[in-house]
Amino acid sequence: MTAPHGGSARRGSRRLSWPRSAAALVAVAAALTALSLPGEARAADPGYDQMSGVGPTASALTVDWTQGLLDSSNNPIASDNADRSNSNSTNPLKFMYDDFKNLKVTVSQTQDLGHQGITVSWIGGKQTAQIGTVQANFLQMMECYGDAASGPTPEQCEYGTAGLLGGAGASVLNPGIGQRVGELCVAGAVPSTTKPPASINGSAVTGCDTKEPSDPTHLGPCPGTYCDSTSFRIPFAPVSDPANLDYNPGTTYWGALNTDEVQEAITGPDGSGQQQFETLTGVQAPGLGCGQPDASNKPHGCWLVIVPRGQYEPNGNPINVNSNSSALRSSPLSASNWAQRIQIHLSFAQVQSFCPPGTLERQTVGTQLVARAVQSWQLALNHDANCAKVYGYSAVPESTSTNQLTASGGGTAGLAFTTIPIGSEATRPGGSGSVPTLPTILYAPVAISALGFGFNINEGTGYVTTPVKLTPLLLAKALTQSYLEDLPDYQGNPSHPGPAWAQGNPRNISTDPQFHALNPTIPQEPTGPINPLLIEEHAALNQQVWQWIQGDSAATGWLGGTPDASDGNMAADPDYASLHLAAPPGLDSYPRAYQACLDNGVAPGSDPPKEESRCTLDILPYIDNFDSAASTVLTASNSALTGSWNTGGRAPDGTDGWWDKRGVEPLGQIFMWGETDTSQLAAYGLIPAQLCNSDGSTCVGPSTASVTAAVSAAKADSSGLLHVDPAHPGTDAYPLVDVIYAAVRTDQDATALNDYADLIAYAAGGGQTPGAVAGDLPPGYLPLPSGLASQAQAIATQLHGLASASPSPSSSSTQPSPITTDSGPTPGGTGTSAGPGGVTGGSTPAATSATTPAAAPVGAPASVPVGAGPSAAAPATSSSPPALARTSPSPGGPVTTLPSDHPVAGTTPLQELGGIRWALIGVAIAGGAFAGGGALLRSGRLPPWLRRRKLE
Description:
Layout: E1 61-64, H1 78-81, H2 97-100, E2 104-107, E3 116-123, E4 129-131, E5 133-136, E6 138-144, E7 157-158, E8 181-183, E9 231-233, E10 262-266, E11 273-279, E12 302-309, H3 335-338, E13 342-346, E14 360-366, H4 371-384, E15 390-395, H5 398-404, E16 415-418, E17 437-459, E18 462-463, E19 468-470, H6 472-479, E20 490-493, E21 496-497, H7 513-518, H8 540-550, H9 553-559, E22 598-602, E23 611-614, H10 616-619, H11 626-634, E24 637-650, E25 656-664, E26 669-677, H12 678-684, E27 687-692, E28 699-700, H13 704-712, E29 715-716, E30 722-723, E31 737-745, H14 750-764, H15 786-804, E32 838-843, E33 911-912, H16 916-931, H17 933-938
Parallel strand pairs: 14-15, 14-16, 19-27
Antiparallel strand pairs: 1-2, 2-3, 3-11, 4-5, 6-7, 6-10, 6-12, 8-9, 12-13, 14-33, 16-31, 17-26, 17-27, 17-31, 17-32, 20-21, 22-23, 24-25, 27-28, 29-30
């Protein structure tokens, strides 16, 4: 796994939208030394870690530049590669070969892809030259379609977005490397490193290409907007209508906030480098159509194209790496540069649904922690049930889960995924204090996940790939607006120095001496990162973080008013003092308490007069959910507001005049981080935080071993639900671990009980197999230990038993056959404590109890609630359709699915889907599970009538 490094100040709107932009990351890193022949499948490396997703996948691929042109089976195309290793080559572009001849690229995953990230790593390159801006020796990457065995053409690639380059390259020195446009050479020109031919306009340094126009369409139609006799322009041919050429696709098919192109990937001094690359399906990038069905109803594959750039322009002009005015200026799509590419075929999972219109839906709701797992299970269950029903899912707040399982709440879902007893959120500080009357509820453990903080740090030296260390004190500072740049009235100048209490504080976390001591390889950014992206929701997950902080005396002392002597007596923000953050039990939210605003008076030129003011929620926005947080961090999509007023900008109220936004952070200037969960860390490849003790001598990150250790030390509450104490998680244990339960009310009709039992049985059976295909357990989840898996299967059997004693609803709904479960050994780790079988009725107890029941030993039979029906170790099974075919062994990287805030609709009992409702389910639930419907929502590409209606 790898990640980024660098940053500029961030200012934002009150709530971040769902932007998706370049280079989302995935947490599966290909080992640079673990090489394989193109097209040769490798078994998963023994070092693969299920919780973090770190390690090469079974479809990882390594290819030399000399054999870099692969066919659709990822075998070298001998005829096309022959010249690259020919020492007697007469190719006029041979002068480029020495820069690339030792280059070897590894891609972490090439099969079963969806909207996710893959790790591209390389060795054997030349160190990137940069003086102020990147000059030479770097890699450029893009996603292309093209089913021909020979690979894609430049017209089939998503590339050429303005505004992605940082520094001088953004507007002065070398913007051409990020464009689809280039200079034409004089007629009859031949490349030369001693006498480079000039372009038609007379310049020799712009890197004209003697091979252009390589196609007649590369000359814009005349007369017309793009008619130019001195330059070529490569149009984009969308996969759905390749004859309809677009000469400015960056305004129609993609843009700065929704492209995955990489314009500058840095190579280090040792010739190695690493870059996280976002793969897009036809949902996020309709112009490419990756994963969409072909004529035989199989998903279209696409291509990863990597264009290495050396120290020569296509005309032979050498770059003077010692001059800050000399840099590559030509496009990678230019024919001579394109000829140096590496092309690797990417196989995508199917985008569209397995089920036809008219399919029935069974709705579930609950914690966003389980989103990726449920969305993987949905595909397998919907298929195995012969589409007799569709399992829906919607991530909702805890209070909504309670309403859904309360008859008086008018809920339409009979199952809620939860980490706490249903209704216990009311007993937390700020809750109603009154737990609603609930029907009898059974709890079945189905997943184990964890919270984490993920980073994307990419400065001039490239990605930071090592875990970032955080102490409770550092995190407390970041969550309480105590760094100068987290204050809206601080501008770093004498007119706006910030409040008196903060003027001696560090500007941001990267300049905090304690942070720098723990993370010495991360450069200090004086105008760098703000505090992490956080969710606004009140949740027990947030309370866990505060409880971890409260377990450290240095943090509680500082929160209580004692300045931090390690960084010049840094003071806490007094506006947070009244919240008593040092006192247990801890808040379940992240308040924005700082009251002062920046007021620059009336904006110049505004009519009517408009006040120039920014407050805390303007510069420190909340994020919608963990998926959105991870995507936003890792794509470096920064919608924060700058200090510049734009009279032409559009304010939230629709009037003219507003603060400028920073947009996408360019490579070399990225430092973003946020709170998320381990499944999102693994899917997007965020660099995780290691949580440390007070002096940083002991640090633990989320891993299979550390999460297993935490579950082993977990204690059951009075409802039988296991909880990890963040302040005392156990030896070598990660502190922010959660066991996720499927809570099912028992007062439902037989069809609903059977459906939910089938879901639980699969989730705790075959759904615990780690892997990348439909039905697998995605990275970021720990397979259930045998004791918990047995407990879940017993609950499923109880539900089946209750169903057999309950009347079926008088409806025309088709009763689907039960889902066949895995009859093999129950997957899982070791060393967990299985709590009592969960059942509640009437009033639900609080999430924690003064009296904790003793935990049962590992593998012990789960206790069964009295009167709940027969018990058994495994649910009843019946025949089902053939399992979904695997194209690679497991583990195989991330299952990339919808975000937790995805569309869902339905009622209980089952309701037929049709029209708009079917489009919602077919596109978002089933297909999006691998296609990445999350980006559909994040990028705003989903029409308003298809957006999720939240369950209130």
